[in-house]
Every structure is written in structure tokens, then in C-alpha cells.
Amino acid sequence: MLVVMKAHATEEQVRLVCEKIEKLGYRPHAMPGATRTAIGITGNSGVFEHGTLEEMPGVQEVIKVSKPYKLVSRDLKEDNTIIRFTATEATIGGQGLAVVAGPCAIESRDQAFAVAGRVVRAGAQFFRGGAYKPRTSPYSFQGLGEEALQIMAEIRQRYGIKIITEAIDNESLDLVEEYADMIQIGARNMQNFSLLKRAGRSKKPVLLKRGMSATLEEFLMAAEYILSEGNYNVALCERGVRTFADHTRNTLDLSVVPAVQRLSHLPILVDPSHGTGKRNKVTPLSRAAVAVGADGLMVEVHNKPDEAMSDGPQSLFPDQFDELMGQVRQIAAVVGRTVPGIGVKNSFAMI
Amino acid sequence: MLVVMKAHATEEQVRLVCEKIEKLGYRPHAMPGATRTAIGITGNSGVFEHGTLEEMPGVQEVIKVSKPYKLVSRDLKEDNTIIRFTATEATIGGQGLAVVAGPCAIESRDQAFAVAGRVVRAGAQFFRGGAYKPRTSPYSFQGLGEEALQIMAEIRQRYGIKIITEAIDNESLDLVEEYADMIQIGARNMQNFSLLKRAGRSKKPVLLKRGMSATLEEFLMAAEYILSEGNYNVALCERGVRTFADHTRNTLDLSVVPAVQRLSHLPILVDPSHGTGKRNKVTPLSRAAVAVGADGLMVEVHNKPDEAMSDGPQSLFPDQFDELMGQVRQIAAVVGRTVPGIGVKNSFAMI
Amino acid sequence: MLVVMKAHATEEQVRLVCEKIEKLGYRPHAMPGATRTAIGITGNSGVFEHGTLEEMPGVQEVIKVSKPYKLVSRDLKEDNTIIRFTATEATIGGQGLAVVAGPCAIESRDQAFAVAGRVVRAGAQFFRGGAYKPRTSPYSFQGLGEEALQIMAEIRQRYGIKIITEAIDNESLDLVEEYADMIQIGARNMQNFSLLKRAGRSKKPVLLKRGMSATLEEFLMAAEYILSEGNYNVALCERGVRTFADHTRNTLDLSVVPAVQRLSHLPILVDPSHGTGKRNKVTPLSRAAVAVGADGLMVEVHNKPDEAMSDGPQSLFPDQFDELMGQVRQIAAVVGRTVPGIGVKNSFAMI
Amino acid sequence: MLVVMKAHATEEQVRLVCEKIEKLGYRPHAMPGATRTAIGITGNSGVFEHGTLEEMPGVQEVIKVSKPYKLVSRDLKEDNTIIRFTATEATIGGQGLAVVAGPCAIESRDQAFAVAGRVVRAGAQFFRGGAYKPRTSPYSFQGLGEEALQIMAEIRQRYGIKIITEAIDNESLDLVEEYADMIQIGARNMQNFSLLKRAGRSKKPVLLKRGMSATLEEFLMAAEYILSEGNYNVALCERGVRTFADHTRNTLDLSVVPAVQRLSHLPILVDPSHGTGKRNKVTPLSRAAVAVGADGLMVEVHNKPDEAMSDGPQSLFPDQFDELMGQVRQIAAVVGRTVPGIGVKNSFAMI
After folding, report:
1. Alpha-carbon gap, residue C302 to C143, rounded angstroms
2. What is the pLDDT of residue B350?
3. Could you give the CA distance from residue D134 to residue D190 in angstroms, rounded to a whole number?
4. Residue D126, CA distances (Å) to A73, D81, D207, D223, D342 in order
5. Of the residues A146, B234, C328, D119, which has the fewest C-beta atoms closer than 10 A?
6. Are A135 and B193 in contact (CB < 8 Å)?
7. What does the pLDDT average to over C116-144?
8. Which long-range contacts (CB under 8 A, 24 or more apart) does D320-324 make?
């Protein structure tokens, strides 16, 4: 159910409708838009008596949302969601292209700073780096854990770049929430509903990666889990799906970008590193991702890819990332986007 | 690494080798076989000085395991793993075919008992029923939780049937471990490594379902996570994979059964209910699963499928399950299997 | 459109209705059933004035077929299609299980006879052997062509076994039609509609293999092409589909067997050799195919698999095929099927 | 095998080497490059005595090509293949982006001219239109055949635009070869090897579409079939592959573009119309295709998509195609490409 408020409804009227919804045993989700506020109603029961709401002051209409996803739908919120971060002009979902870059895993303070320095200079506004790594083998490097989070916090302090890193369970999410600016939920956990609910109760924005065989509807429903708990700052990320094709590690499905944008107000990024698994494909597919209209990129960069503890073959050398950014900037201009950077000159002054 | 003990090595010699391995900073996994004991060695470091082990009394040889999976491999343990349960002759992986049946979700005491009575009578030795349901939508029925576990514990007491139910996070696993006889890890959590590790520290056996786009190697590696924590009682379960084919909900990949049995000592069941998603396909695919050599079946049965809160279209009516069991018994006989049941007569005496 | 004749309609009445349909510019397809005859009407135009037909003697009703496939549908013909061959009791689609066996390609007279002798003795009623091979590489062995057809004709004469072999274009179809008992259309040509139409104008039955990414509907529509040209003796064959799974060459989709049988009257065989691509999987999947209800098997057997010019790794040794037949016979008995053979003793008398 | 000639080898020396190769029973394929000529050697036999060739005048070295594809490989020809057409500056594989546009099927003279006029004006240099349509159903519109070819020949005469249309068997190929400028082999026939060989014996260039579940290697091998018969003017076309994803008709695999360009000298186009099956996705994916580096686009445009006899939902309105071209031109400029057009003003003078 969705309560559409009148264009000039007051905040007080919105508040009263929300209160009423709670009294009826449901959860209200007020979503202010450019011209009107809509209030999504969620709850497990199927039947809902909406007569009382329709009569309330400021309410224009109460409509049934027939799609399985409600809060992520454009039916509820026409305007794009723009995720904002403190003390930076960088956004996700705004006019600026969000560029997230960094190593697959934080391996050491030196490695992390070496990569961070380069990606900041190249214009990335977000730094990625795994602290908790979901690895296929129990015997592979599983990440440095909290130590990695501390290193990334230092990097933020030094460069002003925002930190995005993955949480793999409730325990790691507690820590990621504390240290990072945005919580990543990885592809393997896209339907770890317990973790999604926990992320939905966080105050920090969430980056949700598409599962490797998730349909568009499942992808949006996973986001719906997060929003249904009250966290509306969610960005999606396409990272390739699993198919028969064997020339890339996964098959990057760029058509999901306009498909998401048609149905949902949430921003969507593209990760061409996991999406292809091959260094020589990352730059062309980054260009394509921006051209198709993605709200940002997530790219793996390593100072010494050949010595990387994970995902070396898909990590760019810093020089390659510079080149990627140069090309991406030009494509971005064509599709009406900028690539803001984070005030690089100041950062350099600090070094 | 794998230490092969001599055929007549004593338990004391095995113990001393395990102690030595621990002193070297690794974890020993002693796997007694029909003719010899093998000791798997796990740990994150790549280099291992095995000279000292080879000289110890009772040791025949120390060999490198080149496959990514170690403990689940037949290289380590030639004989099939047989999972045994207290106070029942039913096993998983033995000569008897393990039949797991019950509703998708426990919806009420009445429903659960109605189904349980019928599946026991038909010859199932294991009762399945969801207490915690991983649902695509946050607004769908999520299971009765601990109440469902209590109902299933009563069912065990009444019928002597063993209980298998899914855990979806550490919290639910704590409870499932307490109430049930076997912990199920669902397809969506097959690479929830944090949950796998937790299951590996449990004393209860684990049923691990294949992820919907998991390769054979990923499937075995997920099991390896559980074994690497010390829990060697793991059964696998094929439940269909995701493909382009749209005449069934998933594509049941029966070839994975002989493929697993060739590489691993772990038993493997087949779930034709999720594997096809259609009631009219469950019985033929059950026959096929037994014919291909599966160690058991996992089948959804509901007393009123049309009113089921989840997975109704793939749930059998109890009469259909009776028929399925009749057909399966005949196929089982051809492949040298029995379908033991659980002493049904006594159970009926108790009603 | 479908004209259902009355139960006691005369042949003359059926003939007159067919004539009328032709006069209206359409094509009639009379399909006699156990209790009634139905006449399918095909043609490209969408509008059809059926009032006149309904008034004709012997006509019960004229109904619209809403499915895209008409002639292959059970709506048109309730009874199973049974394909019969001259001078043999072997059928495809009848109570007996049809077993097709032989080498991937006919490589020489000696090889072909060596394999044929063994598969006849083991109980196969149909001999397969490629004369025209669709190979991925233009530089691979492309088959012996007409010479291979002549060798197979000799084999038929010697053993009484029926010959099935693939045609890859109109030219080879002309020759296959002349020499063989059944024309195979391979997976790569499942949507070579020009070839399907040509096969539809042949008097010989057709074995149509599923394309490697064909949906059920596409599979049935490919068969519809053949029937629409007047050839109603078509058997389908599942041979594995292409998925992400890499432990077998293809993923054998056994659920398509009951799915086809529900929608269509056409028989369906299973090819576990291409379906798995691995010798050690052929026998278990053959058991499963018979258990699921397939009308027959198509199995590659070679006297010297390691020297085979194509598909060696998936070809059985003759001894393995003997064992397969032993196991298959037992499963067949459980599902109410026999494995007739072709009067082997007489054949041996002729040697 | 591959004979690399010296940089300054004469044409006569090349001719003599080719003659020698023929005498040895093989087929030579001379491929002149910017700095040297290479001669590919094909033939079915595995053993080849190359000593004699190495001693011939002008020969630098004879090397073994280990990849399964030989003539399509960059090992044989380093420079990009550029397909040229008479009386037009438009090329495929050159610096200019090749834009192919037109209706799925030629339905009438009026429809064809209406669309052609618009796509010429918008800048397309190639006109597509189906004369022979491979349709899933035998009852669907199968194309106007030769009449359509005649209409397209008139369109070429009127507008100077080059004609590309599909052949579906040897008979239609004879006619397409006569009327059109480039022969299209469709996705369903990508492994119709008989048709590929026939196309390989044509003097007209060939556009080969990727099969819906073709791996990169199979795609290149299909092209190899054409080249091995002596026709080196082949362009490839990605048109989406079949996966589980259901938000688009197929999953457009843009990563195959840089993958092909790395391994092969053949140009590759992208068809976002079939690749997505949805009108609203065609323009974003066209931008992405150009950004990723494709050598051209193949786009379905119809004057009245809602009345189209096939593929209406994926056909652009002419105004949408104008807009697409505007956007594509800008992206093309970023990746160093032009979109030449065909001298539109003259064309208009002729109207």
C-alpha cells in the first residue's frame, strides 16, 4: 500500500498519517519527493483497511502496489535516490559519477596507502578494500579483519576519500558500520536475508551487489529487505552473472542498468573487475558501463597485481586506472555526468 | 597434506601424530577408514615441513593433496561417510536409502502432525519442516521460529522420526542445533562462509544444499568449510540449478550425484521438489534420483498443498507420497538399496 | 484449429472434411486416435471461418488450439505416437524401450561391424553411426559420407538392426533418406528450419535432438515444423543443455521427459553420452533416464574408444554397454517397460 | 601452419609458395598485412613436412598455430580486417563505425522505403531487412523471399545504401548473393556448417551472428569455416546469449567485443535489438556497444513498430533512431571513431 500525500501537505500531516499507520499495526516509510511525499506501508498481513487513511488531512489517495517490491519502486518515489555523505560533495545517484576503487583485499598498511594515494589522485571519491573476504576455500586468505578497517579509517583521514567495505555476518557488520562510510553486501550474501535485515537497521548506506544468478526481481527484493527495515540509502551494483560463457569470469549484464533505473529509484553501479575477471577487459567495460548510464563504477586497483593475495588477474595497475579515468571522464561528459574527484589538491598538500 | 598411517598403526600412534601436527601450528583431522587411518592437515600457510612426520612410528607416508578440497576428498578417505543417528537404524550414506519428507514450512501443530503421521507411515525416516524460511520477499511468511522447532521436537518424540531443519544465521543455528537432529544449510547460504564455519563447530550433522549456480568444486569447497572446523558429518543435497530452461523452476542436475561420489566420500541426496518446482514432476524425478545412485531423497509433502503458505505447487499430497515411496522402493532394490523405515508399527501403537 | 470427428465417423467423412479444408486453402492433418480421429488444420493465415466445417457429417466440434504448437500437442492426439518400422517388432514410443547404440562416427567397415555385433548382442534394436559429422572445427574429421551409409546398410542386412543417422543439409538428407531407417536432425540444426521442412516431406521417421539452449516450447515448435509438412513420425531426444556447470560437457535435463510427455504425444529418448560427455556418467544417467520414463536411450559405443576419431571420452566400451543393458533392463521392468532386442539368436546364426 | 614471408618478399615469391602448398595437397590462404604477408595453410591431415617451404625464397619462417582457429587468428594477420564495398566509403572494420539499420522483415515496398528513407537520413550506411525469416513457429510469417530482395535492390539504387540480408539455406543464399551486398548468417545457423561452407565459397562478404549459446571459441570456429573456404571478408555480430536472466530477451555480452578483438583480426558488430528485445533498452546498449569498442551496430527500425509482423517490441521508431544516432556519434568521437553516413544530400537530390 502506498499513501500519496497532496503536493502541499504539511510535515505534520505526514507525521499524523505515519502515526495512524503504526497504530494499525503496520510500518510507514515516508519518502519525500520533489513535488510530493509518498508513504509506503509494509507489514506481513495481506488485508488492509485503508478507508480511514484516505479521509485524513493532506492525503490525496491510497493505492495498491501490485509489484512484489514496494519501497524500492518508482511507484513510491519518482525521483532518483541520491546518497549523500558527510564532508564530501561526492554522492551516489546524483549528477556526478561515483567512482569506487581500491584493492580486492587490504593486505598491509603499505599496500593500502600505496593504492589509495593513486586512486585519489586519479579521481576516485570512494576507496574499496576487503577486510573480511568471502573466499571459496577455507584455506585462502580471509582478510585482516579489524586491522584492515583501521587502516582504511586512516586512509579516509589522510585523503578525505570515503570508505566502502564488505560485511559478511552480523559481527563484521557491527565493525564495518563503525569504521566505514558504506557497508557492502557481497554477491554471495545477496540472499542472506538475516544480514540484509541487519544492514537495514544500520544508519550507514549500503552497497548491495547482485547475486551471481539473481534475476532482476530477486535483486530488487533483496534491496527491499534493507529498505523495509528503515534504511533507504541503498545502492545496487551489477558485477556479472554466471552463464555458460567462458571467455570472462562472469558475464557482465549491462542491460540491468537501464532495467533497474526504469523500475526503481535506487542508484546502480557497475563492477567491471568481477564482471569480467580479466584486467584487459576492465577499461572497455568501464566505458560501456558509463555509456549505458550507470551511476558509478567499482574497480579493483592494486599497486602490485601480480603479488595480490586475491583477484590479482582482474586488478588494474595504477597507471591503467589513470587511463581508465581519463576515458571514463570523456564518456561521462557525453551522457551528462561529471566525475567530481575529492579536492585532490588539498590531499596532496597533506602528503 | 595428508598423513597415511600404516594398516596396523595403533590409536596411540595416531594420537601422537595429531599432537605433533598441532604443535607445528596446524590442525589434524583423523579419518579412520576400513583398512587404515588417514590424517588430513589443514591450516592457512602454504609451506609445510613434513620430514618430521614421516619419521614418526606408525606413519606410512605423507602426501600432498593437490585438489583444492582436502577433507571432503576420497584421497583422504576412501570409504563412504555414513552419518548415524542415535536410537534409529536410519543412516545417511549407508546401504539404506535416506528419505526426508515433510512440509516446506511448519505452519501449525495440526498441519505438522498431520503430515508427519503420513510420511512416517509411508516410510520416511527423516522429517523436514521449515522453522526459519529464507523468502525472496520480506513480506512473505518467514516461519514460526522456535515454536516450529518445539513442534518438530514433539513429532520426533511421538514418531521416532529424526528432524532436519534449516538454520539461516548464527542465532537460528543455536536453536536448530538444540532441537533438531540435523542442521540444514540452504541453497542461498551455501557460500555464507560465516554460517558454514559455525555449522562446522556444531556436534550435529549438517545437510548442505547446493547453491543455485554453484559449480561442483564450489559445492565441495562449501562442505570443506564445515569439515575444516571439525564436523565431518556432512551430507550434500542437489536441488536444481538455475538455467535458461523455463519448464521447471530449476534444472535438476542428476549428473552431479555420480560426480560427487567419484570425488568425495560424503553422501548426496536429491531434492526433486525444489529441483522441479512442479508436483507432477516430483515422482518421476525421484525415481530417476534413486536410479542414478543418490543416497536419499528430500521431498516436500503437505496435507493441504493448495493452502500451503509456501511452495504449495511443488508439495505432494500424502497419497502421492505413498505412491512415490512404492515406486522408489522398487528402483532402490535394483540399485542395491533398501528403504528401511523407522519401525512404523511401534509408532502406530503409540498413537 | 482442430476438427474433432465423432467417435463413429467414417473414413469417408474424414476424407471429405480434409478435402474441404484443402479447398479453403489450408492443410489438413488427420490423426486417428484410439476412440476418435482429430484433424489438425494448419496454414499461415490467422482468420479462419469454421462454420462450414462444423455442419459437415461426422464432425463433433471445431476448436481453437491456443498453444503455439498444434500438431505435436496432446490436444490434437491423446494417444502416444508409436513409430513402427518394417520387419521388426522394435518401435519407438511403444511399450518396449527403444535402445539406439553405436559409434559417434563410422570410421571404417571393420570398426562399424565390430561395434554393431556387440550392440546387437547386448539388445539394441537401433544402430547409430555418423556419416556426416557437424564438427566445431573445419579441420576435424567430417565423416565418411555415403560410404558410411553403405556400411550401415550392410549392417542392417546382416543383423536386422535398424539404422539411424544424421543429415546435416538437404543433400545429405536425400542420401540418409535412401539408406537409413530414421533420419536424425542434430542439436545444432534444431532450428535449421529449412532442413526441418525437408525432413517433414520425407517418408522416413525423424529423430529430432534438442538444441543446446532450446526451451521446451522451442523444442516442440521445431517438431511442429516437421509435422506441419506431413511427417508425423517424429521422436524427440534430450541430449543435455548448456549451463554454467562444468563437471559434465552438458547438463542432462531429465525433467524435460515428463514435461514433453505431458504436452505432446511424441516419444522422447535420452542421450546420456552427449548429455554428460563422460564415459563414467553414461550408465548411471541411463538408469535415471529409464526411471524418469524416457521412451528410449541413445548411447555411444566404440570398440576402441581411446582411438575414436570423435567423442572417444564419452563412448562406452562394449563390455560397459553390456553392463548398462543389464541394469537398464531391471529399471525398465520397474516402470513397466520391456527391452525387446531384435531376435538376436537368428542374427548370430547369420554370422 | 603459417608461412611468414619476409617484409620485402615479392608477389611472385608469395605465389610460388602458394603453388607449392597446393602441390603438397593443402590449401594456401595468403593474407597481406601492413608489413608482411602471411600464408595460412589448411587441410585435414595432421602431419605436415614444412622443411621444403622454409627453404623457398622470400620465406622468413614456418610456424605452427596451436589455437584451433587459424585463419581468423591475429597470429596469422596482425592488422584488422577492413571489409570494403564498391561505390561507397562505408567499410566494416575501418575507422568509421558501421551502422546497419532497417526492419526485422521486409513486409512491403512501402514499409521498406519508408524505413530506408529514414535510416539513410539518420546516417546508416547499411540497410537490413529480412527476406527469409527463421521463425520459431512454422505458422508465423516466413518472409517475402525474392520479392523482398528485389525491393532491397531498389532501395540500394535509390539511396546508395548497402544491403545486408539473411540466407537460411543454400537456395536462399544463391539469391541473397545475387541481390545483396553482404550475406547474413543468423544465430540459429551459426553451426549450420553446410551453410557456412557455402558462404565461404561466395564472393560477397558475410555477417556471422553469434549463436545463442556459443562460446567465444565456437564463434571463432564458425567464422573459420567461412574463411577456410576462401572468403576472408567476414564480420562477426554479438546479439545476446541465452541465460537465466529474464528482464531482457537475451543477455547482451559486450565483453565478447574486446575478447574477439584480442584474438582475431575480424571486425565485430553489436545488435542491441535482439540483444535486449526491448525498445527502451536499445539506445543505452547502443551507446555501450560503441563505448566498448564495437566496429558497428545493427539496429532494428520500423516505421510502425506496433504493426510489425515480427520483432515489433524491439524495433525503434524512426525518431528514436535519429536520437540514437545523435548519441552514438558523440560516443564514437570519444573512442576515436567517425560515423560517415553515405552522402545523404545526393540521395535526397534523387528523391
Report:
1. 15
2. 39
3. 13
4. 40, 18, 12, 21, 9
5. A146
6. yes
7. 95
8. D320/D279, D320/D282, D320/D283, D321/D101, D321/D118, D321/D119, D321/D122, D322/D118, D322/D122, D323/D283, D324/D282, D324/D283, D324/D286, D324/D299
Residues B273-326 have pLDDT tens digits of: 999 999 999 999 999 999 999 999 999 999 999 998 888 899 999 999 999 999
CA separation for the pair B158, A304 (Å, rounded): 63
Domains and CATH numbers, chain D: 2-63 (3.30.70.1140), 83-350 (3.20.20.70)
C247: phi then psi, degrees, rounded to nearest 5: -85, -15
Predicted TM-score of the model (pTM): 0.94
- The sign one gets for the Cα dihedral A235, A239, A242, A243 is positive
Burial B282-296 (b: 16+ CB within 10 A, else e): bbbbbbbbbbbbbbb
* Residues in chain B closer than 8 A to A186 (CB atoms): none
- Residues on chain A bordering chain B, Cβ-to-Cβ distance under 8 angstroms: 42-44, 68, 70, 134-142, 168-172, 188-189, 191-195, 197, 212-213, 217-218, 221, 224-225, 228, 242
* Phi, psi (degrees; rounded to nearest 5) at A305: -55, -35
Chain-wide mean pLDDT for chain C? 93
**Contacts D247 to A, Cβ<8 Å:** 215-216, 255-256, 259
The per-residue pLDDT for range D54-70, each reduced to its tens digit, is: 889 999 999 888 788 89
C225: closest CA of chain D, how far (Å): 5
Angle at C252 between CA C251 and CA C254, to 5 degrees: 140
DSSP assignment letter at A188: G
In the block, cell 532450428 appears at C191
d(CA D315, CA D322): 13
| Phi, psi dihedrals of residue B297, rounded to the nearest 5° | -130, 150
Rounded to the nearest angstrom, the minimum Cα separation between C341 and chain D is: 35
Considering only CA atoms, which of B244, B324, D211 is closest in space to residue C253? B244
Closest CA to A318 of A297, A335, A300, A337: A300
Chain C CB contacts of A213 below 8 Å: 244
Sorting pLDDT into bands at 50, 70 and 90, what band is A246?
very high
Q: Do C244 and B248 touch (CB under 8 A)?
A: no
Neighbours of A168 (CB within 10 A): 27
Query: Which residue pairs, CB below 8 angstroms and at least 24 apart, start in C312-317?
Result: C312/C104, C313/C277, C313/C278, C313/C279, C314/C249, C314/C273, C314/C274, C314/C276, C314/C277, C314/C278, C314/C279, C314/C282, C315/C103, C315/C104, C315/C273, C315/C279, C316/C273, C316/C279, C316/C282, C316/C283
Scanning the structure block, which residue is given the C-alpha cell 508425423? C232
With contacts defined as CB-CB under 8 Å, which chain D residues touch C194?
168-169, 171-172
Residues on chain A touching B171 (C-beta within 8 angstroms)? 194
Which residues of C fall below an 8 Å CB-CB distance to B? 213, 215-216, 241, 243-248, 251-259, 262, 275-276, 280-281, 284-285, 287-293, 327, 330-331, 334-335
How open is the CA angle A52-A55-A59, to the nearest 5 degrees?
110
> For residue A255, what is the enclosing H or E element?
none
Spatial separation of the C-alpha atoms in residues B254 and C77, rounded to whole Å: 31
3-state class (DSSP) for residue A238: strand
For chain B, the farthest-separated pair of C-alpha atoms sits apart, in whole angstroms, at 66
Find where cell 508436483 sits. B279
The segment with the largest mean pLDDT, out of A66-80, A146-160, B35-49, is A146-160
Chain D interface residues facing chain A, Cβ-Cβ under 8 Å? Answer: 213, 215-216, 241, 243-248, 251-259, 262, 275-276, 280-281, 284-285, 287-293, 327, 330-331, 334-335
The whole-angstrom separation of Cα D164 and Cα D103 is 11
pLDDT tops 70 at residue D345: no
Q: What value does the mean pLDDT take over residues B88-93?
A: 93
